[in-house]
Specification:
114 residues; mainly beta; 11 strands
């Protein structure tokens, strides 16, 4: 079991920024492929961004606005979100992948007001 705890969500006006964090424990964080997903009301959960070692990928809807990063020494992954729009409103989840298994965090709410 990999405990994942997200934080940093909240209410922000359109055009604003937030930084989400996903923290875990253990000595093997650097071996996980880490990802962010989000789920808006009434919609399916969707991929946002991923980082594996130093390679990162993004969904088209967030590319150029969001930046994913990780600090293996702190067992923490981040998602810097800039130029937020109401369409970014969702519960954001972090996930850790290793050897075909995925663990999920509990999610953090991001609400962007217009």
């Amino acid at each position: 079991q990999v405990p994942l705890v997200e934080s940093g969500g909240g209410l922000v006006q359109a055009g604003g920024s937030l930084r989400l964090s996903c923290a875990t424990s253990g000595r093997t964080f650097s071996t996980y492929a880490m990802k962010w997903f989000r789920q808006a009301p009434g919609k399916e959960r969707e991929f946002v961004a991923a980082i594996n070692w130093n390679e990162s990928t993004y969904a088209g809807s967030v590319k150029g606005r969001f930046t994913i990063s990780r600090d293996n020494a702190k067992n923490t992954m981040y998602l810097q979100m800039n130029s937020l729009t109401p369409e970014d409103t969702a519960v954001y989840y972090c996930a850790a992948d290793l050897a075909g298994t995925r663990w999920w965090g509990q999610g953090t709410q991001v609400t962007v007001s217009s």
